[in-house]
Amino acid sequence: MSSMNRREFLQMLAAASVAGVALDSRPLLAAENGDALYDMPKFGNVRFMHFTDCHAQLLPIWFREPSVNLGIGAALGKAPHLVGEHLLKAFGIKPGTREAHAFTYLDFAQAAKTYGKVGGFAHLATLVKRLRAQRPDALLLDGGDTWQGSATALWSKGQDMVDACKLLGVDMMSAHWEFTLGDKRVQEIVEKDLKGHIDFLAQNVKTTDFGDPVFPPYAMREMNGVSVAVIGQAFPYTPIANPRYMMADWTFGIQDENMQKMVNEVRAKGAKVVIVLSHNGMDVDLKMASRVTGVDAIMGGHTHDGVPQPIIVKNSGGQTLVTNAGSNGKFLAVLDFDVRGGKVQDFRYKLLPIFSNLLPADTQMAAYIEKIRTPHKQKLEEQLAVTEGLLYRRGNFNGSWDQLILDALMEVKGADIGFSPGFRWGTTLLPGTAITFEHLMDQTAITYPYATLNEMKGERVKEVLEDIADNLYNPDPYYQQGGDMVRVGGMSYTCDPNAKAGRRISDMRLGGKPIMAEKTYKVAGWAPVDPAATGEPVWDVVAGWLKDKKTISARKVNDPKLTGMKGNPGIA
Amino acid sequence: MEMNVTRRTVLRGAGSLGALSALIAAGVLKPTAAFAAEWNKAAFEAQDTTGVLKGLGAGTPGEHKGLILKVPDIAENGAVVPVDVVSTIPNTVSIAILVEKNPLPLSAHFDFANGALPEAAVRLKLGQTSLVKAVVKADGKFYIAQKEVKVTVGGCGG
Fold first, then answer.
1. At what angle do helices A437-444 and A400-413 cross, to 10 degrees?
2. Pairing of β A520-526 and β A513-514
3. What is the pLDDT of residues A108-150, one digit of tens each?
4. How high is the mean pLDDT of chain A?
5. What domain range includes position B82?
6. CB within 8 A of A433, min separation 6: which ones?
C-alpha cells in the first residue's frame, strides 16, 4: 500500500465505483431487511432478468461455491477461475459479509447458519415481481438446466418445472439437461406447454440428416419502443456429455458462423439490443464474444459460475458483456441498458443473491409448489441418515457428497475403484442435519441413473481420466465441455492440468501400489452414456447404504495431488 | 417443415444411402463422373500424411483463406464425423480430405471438372482425436487447411 501513490489510489476508487462496489459495509448491514440489497435504481430503458441452471430446485437450499476452480492457459487468474478471497478481492466484495457468503465457500457452514437458505421459486417470484413493477416489459430469460435436478422434476418428466416457469413468467429459454428427457418429450413440451408463453430458442440445434433448424434461433420484442433480440444457444456438447441416443436425430456444436449470421439477421431486422442466452459455459462464452461481433451481452450459464460483474470482451465490432449467473436458483441477474440514438450507450448489472429470509415467499408460487409436492411428501421427506460433516458437490476434482456416493457404490458393489461423474449441480447439506431421500435425489436425479460395475484394465482407467481431464483443462475453451473432473474413489493419482492431453495423469495407485496397465480392476460407477447399459438406480444403492449406516461421519475427500498449480487463484 | 418431411420420406424410400450415393440417386452426379477419375494408389495407400501429400504430388502446400474446412471441435460420434470443404480459390480442380491419425489418412479425393462448384461434404470415421486436413489443387498449386477434431469417451458433463 505504501508504494501506491495518490493517483493510483484514486484510480482504484474510480474502478471500484464503476464496478458498483460498496466501499464500506453499511449498505450491506442495512440490507438486512432486503431493501438495500435488492434496490435497483432505475436506469436506462431496457431490462433483462436472467437465471440459469436452477436444476429444478423449487425450494430454498444451500449451495456451497467451489474452493477449486482452476484456470489454465489464458484463463489463469481470471474470472470465473477465482475462488474464495481471490474472488472477493477481484470484485471488491468485503469479507465476512452476506455478499461474500453468496459468492464464495468461505466459512461456509457457519455463514450458512447466519444468513439462511438461498433460492426457491416462491422467493425468486417475489423478486421478479418487484423488478417487473419497476419495468413492466422487462424480459425474464432462463438459460436452461431447469427441467432436471430434483425428484419431482424427474417423476413428472419436467412438468413441475415447466408449469413453475410459466407461473414465474419466463419469456425465453435455452437448454441442456432438458434434452435428457428425450427429444420427443422436449418437442411435446415445446408444442403443448410453451407455445404462446415461452420461446424455446437454440440457433445451434439442427437435424443430423439435412441440418434443418429444430427450434427457432431467436425471438424479437419491443421494449419501451426499443427493438431487442434474444438468440438462444443450447449446450453445444449435449450429445457427448449426455447419452446421444436421447437426442439421436439432432446435432449440436458451437456454430459461431451461424451465430454471426443470426446476429446480422436480427440487426438487419432492426434490433438495437442483441442478447445471446447461452448454455455454452463461461470460458466458451468469453471466446465466442471475441469472435462474434454485434452482440451486446452473452448471458451465460452451464459452468455454474456466480460472477458478480460482467467481463467486458473487446472484439472487432466493439465490445460484448459476458455474464454467468450461478446455479440452483441462488441468483437472479439484472441487466439494464440505456439505449439511445439506435444503440446501447451504457449498462448496469447486478447479480442478486436470493436470500429466502430477506424475500417473502410469493403466495401463489408457494401454493403451486406445495400442490406438486403433496402427493410425494412421504417419499421425499423419508430420512435416510444423519450427516456429521458438510456435504457439498461443486469443485474441480471432488466434493464430500460425491465421496459419499463413491464410498457407498464401492462398498455395495465390492469395487476396487469408484467413478462418479463431474456434475456441477447438487445442493449442500450442513453438518448435523438429516439426509432425506429428496436430498439424495438432488444429487442423482437423471434419466440414466444406472449403477454399474465394470472390469477395466489399468490403461483404460488412465485413458478415461486423461480424456475427462482434457474436457476440463484443454487450453482452448472450444474443446472443453464445462463439467468437472470425474470423481475418483479408492485410487490416488497426480494431475498436472498444464500438461498436454494424454499426459496430465500420473502416479495412479491403489492401496499404495501402482496401477498396472495390463491388470484388470473392478470399477463401480453410475450415469453411463452407453445405450446398452442397465443397472439399479444409483439412488437405491446409496439409500440402502445410508439407511444401513444411519450416521455418516465426515467424509475423507479423495482429491488428486496437483502439479504446477501453486499460486493459482482458482484454488483455496 | 412439410417439405423437409417429404425429403426425408423420399430418401428413406430409396434405402439407407450415404450422402454421396444420395446425390447420385438424385442425378446430381453421374456415377461415371464420380468414379471414373483415376485411382491414386500411392496416395490412398500411404500410411502417413507426408506419404499422402507425396502421392498427390502436393509438396508442402501453403494456406489460403479461400479454402474453408468445416469440422466439429468435438465429434458427437467418432464413427460419423461431418467434414465439409469449400474452396473459393479460382480454378480449383480437386479436394482431398485427410485424417492424420487414421491408419490410412487419405479418406476421400474429389475431382471437379468444367467449373463444378468445389465443395465436398463427407462423414468420416475417426478412431481417435486427430487433425483433419483438406488439400486442394488450383491452377497447378496446392493449398491446405487443417483443424483438430477431438474424439472423447463422453459423459460427465455439466
1. 90
2. unpaired
3. 999 999 999 999 999 999 999 999 999 999 999 999 999 999 9
4. 94
5. 38-149
6. A386, A387
Does A486 contact chain B (CB < 8 Å)? yes
Let me know whether A429 and A318 are in one domain. Answer: no
Of A210, A253, A464, Cβ closest to residue B7:
A210
Interface of B with A (CB under 8 A): 4, 7-8, 11, 72-77, 82, 129, 148, 150, 152-158
**What number is the average pLDDT over the span A499-513?**
97
What does residue A364 show for φ and ψ, rounded to 5 degrees?
-65, -45
Identify all chain A residues contacting B119, using CB atoms and an 8 Å cutoff: none
Apex A131 CA angle, A40 and A165, nearest 5: 140
Q: What is the pTM of this model?
A: 0.90
Measure A463 CA to nearest chain B CA, in Å.
Answer: 9
**φ and ψ of A45, to 5 deg:** -135, 0
User: Which three-class secondary structure state does DSSP give residue A340?
Assistant: strand
- Please count the helices (runs of H) and the strands (runs of E) in chain A: 18, 25
In whole angstroms, give the CA distance from residue B138 to residue B69.
16
Alpha carbons within 13 angstroms on the beta-carbon side of residue A429 total 26
Residue in B7, B150, B153 closest to A479 by CB:
B150
Range of the domain at A183: 34-39+47-61+117-369
In this structure, the answer to whether residues B14 and B44 fall within a common structural domain is: no
Please state whether the peptide bond connecting residue A80 to the residue before it is cis, i.e. omega within 30 degrees of 0. yes
Option in A237, A470, A474 nearest B157 (CB): A237
Q: Are A524 and A453 in contact (CB under 8 A)?
A: yes
Residues 6+ apart with CB under 8 A from B131: B99, B100, B101, B146, B147, B148, B149
| A27 Cβ contact list (under 8 Å, min separation 6) | A36
ipTM of the complex: 0.83
Find, among A446, A426, A358, A423, the residue nearest to A62 by Cα.
A426
Both B56 and B115 in a single domain? yes
Strands (E), A388-467: 417-420, 433-436, 451-457
